[in-house]
Amino acid sequence: MDIHALKNIGKFVSVIGVALSLFLLTAIIVGWIYHENMRDFLYFDFGLFGFNALIFFLLRRHTMKLSIKGGILSVNLIWVLLGVAGAIPFVLYTGISPADAFFESVSGFTTTGATVFSDIESLPKSILYLRSLTHWLGGMGIIVLGVGLFSLINPSGSMALFKAESTGIKMEKITPKVKDTAIRLWGIYLLFTLVDAVALKLAGMTVFDAINHAFSTISTGGFSTKNSSLGYYQSPWIIWITTFFMIISGINFLAHLKLLSTGKLDGYKREEVLWYLAIFVILSLLLGSIDIFVDYDSYFHALTHSFFTIASVLTTTGFATLDYSQWGHIAISIIFVAMLVGGNAGSTAGGVKVIRYIVLFKNIRLQFKQTLHPSAILNVFIDGQKTSSQIISSTTGFIFLFVMTNMLVTLYLFARGFDAMTAVSTALATVGNIGPGFALTGPAENYAFFSSTDKMILSAAMIIGRLEFYTVFLLFSRSFWKKF
User: Fold this and answer.
1) Which alpha helices (DSSP H) does 342-388 contain, by range?
2) Quick one: which of 2, 77, 88 has its CA closest to 48?
3) What is the pLDDT of residue 471?
4) Pairwise CA distance, residues 99 & 483, whole Å
5) Is the dihedral of CA 189, 195, 199, 200 positive or negative?
6) What's the Cα-to-Cα distance from 197 to each of 184, 216, 389, rounded to whole Å?
7) The whole model's pTM is what?
8) Mean of the pLDDT values across residues 466-480?
């Protein structure tokens, strides 16, 4: 790697560092409002700002042209540095170990929602807000924010960054310039957050709780300000409002952008969205039926909690109203299906994504037909358009990496002595950025019992899942570093 490439990466990372320090100021303001001693936090934030501002100042005359390789390396570096930066306030204000703090920070920025805290309500307000803020920043992707900032420095590099972080199979631009798309996406993200917060406040939450839960909901993160998560609130209005916003946050944000920009509903008529909504309704009704016929709960109670639970797991948010790990084996099996599916590409949700399953199953069906009709020329079509062999290959590779990563994490945890359900569900919960699993990491439990080494490995699993495997595993390829 030459000095020019290092300067490119350094300048961009410094911009993200400056932006992060400005966002962290809001956590300091929250602490001041609640009369907390924010001196150490302020010193840290000032140091973070000063260090990154100095790097940017030293490189201000450097003209950046970030390549795809540079973008990929920057993305990986930024997510690790975000974990470190977010961990420092946790160490300063809660006294947890650096490994615990890094885990909590990474869990926040990757919108996983797994926590090491057992008594969340005892935490300072500034820390509660910081946890939700990391979700909100990581939800849409700090890199997408960086695209907008980076374009102010050098527009030619925006595409490289956008491709490196893009969660969809195929990048789609609503506006001619990537920076305009990024800015509009953040506008919609902010709008949804504000509407959700207002709705939660009107439903009975305090302003502080409403803002924090809106941050966690729209980002599909799952951190709550209460020990029992959304189960603390008895209002069905709060549960249904959160269910609605979790579901729309699991839809490709470009569909929302198209609606608000052009008034067209085309984005919601795509196969991925229709299958996503169908899966949500079917799994919710199945889970609700079990609650009705097994536990004899009322229809409204059962459907309220089943729709909420499936929305939370399907979108990888991780909120809970009840301990669904106690609902029986059939219920757990249904929830496992939701954990494996995930949301839409281009949404804040994690997981495999519905579109990849569509491509996979259509390709399998094509292979069956090809076997019966060897001479036939067949293609996979999504939304009426031919899907390239490159996308099919990429999808197959992604699913293989997803399975392989889950298997490795599962085997590690099982070798450490944890039971099979804990090992399997924890691997899926961290790699899929879901948060709660089953058994020892169920919705009523936390991750505090893991060793420091366990937490670092699970932190790596969360980052790998958030960056969708290729972006991380490419770093271990010899060809990546060749002629960098």
Assistant:
1) 354-372
2) 88
3) 86
4) 35
5) positive
6) 20, 11, 43
7) 0.92
8) 87
Is residue 176 pLDDT above 80, yes or no?
Answer: no
CA distances from 460 to 132, 168, 430, 466 (A): 20, 22, 9, 10
CB-based burial of residue 456 (10 Å sphere; 0-12 exposed, 13-18 middle, 19+ buried)?
A: middle
To 10 degrees, what angle do helices 98-109 and 125-140 make? 50
Tokens representing 369? 């037909």
Contact (Cβ atoms closer than 8 angstroms) between residue 146 and residue 19:
yes
Q: Are 27 and 129 a contacting pair, CB within 8 Å?
A: yes
Distance (Å) of CA 79 to CA 131, 218, 221: 16, 20, 16
| Alpha carbon distance 2, 391 (integer Å) | 32
Residues 6+ away with beta carbon under 8 Å from 390: none
Tens of pLDDT along 136-161? 999 877 556 555 555 554 554 555 55
Q: What is the pLDDT of residues 387-396, one digit of tens each?
A: 888 888 888 9
Spatial distance between the Cα atoms of 409 and 164, rounded to a whole number of angstroms: 24
> What number of other Cβ atoms are within 10 A of residue 24's Cβ?
25
What number of other Cβ atoms are within 10 A of residue 250's Cβ? 28
| Lookup: tokens for 461 | 């699993």
Contacts of 335 (CB under 8 A, 6+ apart): 287, 309, 310, 313, 324
Both tokens of 392, joined, read 């099919």
Q: 80 in helix, strand or coil? A: helix
Q: What is the DSSP letter of 320?
A: -
- Give the separation between CA 333 and CA 118, rounded to whole angstroms: 27
Q: What is residue 147's predicted lDDT score, i.e. its pLDDT?
A: 55
Determine whether 367 is exposed, middle or buried from the number of CB atoms within 10 Å of its CB (0-12, 13-18, 19+): exposed
Partners of residue 315 on adjacent β-strands: none
234: tokens are 């008895």
Question: 208, 225 in Cβ contact below 8 A?
Answer: yes
Identify whether the C-beta of residue 434 lies closer than 8 Å to the C-beta of residue 339: yes
CB atoms within 10 A of CB 396: 14
Please choose, from the candidates 97, 75, 68, 90, the residue with its C-alpha nearest in 3D space to the C-alpha of residue 13: 75
